[in-house]
Amino acid sequence: MGELVFVGLGLFDETDVSLRGLEEIKGAEAVFVELYTSLMAGLSRRRLEKLIGKGFSVVSRHYLEEEKGQIILQEAEKEKTVLLVPGDPLIATTHVDLRIRAEKLGIKTRVIHGASIISAAIGLSGLQNYKFGRSVTVPFPDEGFVSETPYQVIKENRKMGLHTLCFLDVRVEEGRYMTVKGALQALSAVEKRKRNSVITPNTLVIGVARAGSENSVVKANYIREVMKYDFGKPPHTIIFPGKLHFMEAEALITLAKAPESVRGMVA
Asked: Are residues 174 and 145 in the same domain?
């Protein structure tokens, strides 16, 4: 009987994988990589193969979701198999279903964690982790339809004074990556319908780009200003602050170049 090991690749490129993760990969007979749940902007297939000392198979959303990962499970029933996942395998992405099916087949599973956009974006912002409410994904508008779910989540978190971490839609197979500006435009379209003053030109927002890379960007300002800011290449993430502790306000001003007026949000 083999086993299935989920290994987190981290945030930006192949050097983000942990030493433990690298050992697991080198000791595996079969290696699969999924790259559709997140964009690792600096990842090179050639460099990754050189680092791990072997080739690997890239699996698509179709194989993991529609085909139920059968190609991976078949290998894991016979030999040690590794699935490489951007970020942290079971946090920002969800492959819990595959792990459950493996266990039900009697296949031992383990998880080697990697850096996650959740901890990275929060850490870069200087906001306090325990003051975050429910996180949410801002999806691309589908045939003109703009989801109201992110808007409602931001609204409910704000009622409780909590911050909101917004993941931005990634469609790797289509080469589409939502930007900070695109997400704010989608949320502003919902505001025009709902008129609850959740997303306004004077709403404070934090944009994070390329977390984990050497040229990451963190910028905090009011939406009217952030919409004009060039965050550069994706991936992008957004945080909507709730009530601020005085240290959080200081961090936003110092680390994210927020305007001094954010001190007025301290509660």
From this structure: yes
Residues (pLDDT < 50) of the chain are none
Question: What is the pLDDT, as a whole number, of residue 92?
Answer: 63
Same domain, 130 and 103: no
CATH of residue 43's domain is: 3.40.1010.10
Into how many domains does the chain fold? 2
Q: How far apart are CA 167 and CA 1, in angstroms?
A: 38
In SS3 terms, 78-125 reads as: CCEEEEEECECCCCCCCCHHHHHHHHHCCCEEEEECCCCHHHHHHHHH
* Nearest C-alpha neighbor of 87 from the set 237, 253, 266, 255: 237
d(CA 89, CA 91): 6
Task: Give the rounded distance of the alpha carbon of 45 from its chain centre.
Answer: 21
What pLDDT does 15 receive?
96
Domain extent at residue 8: 3-112
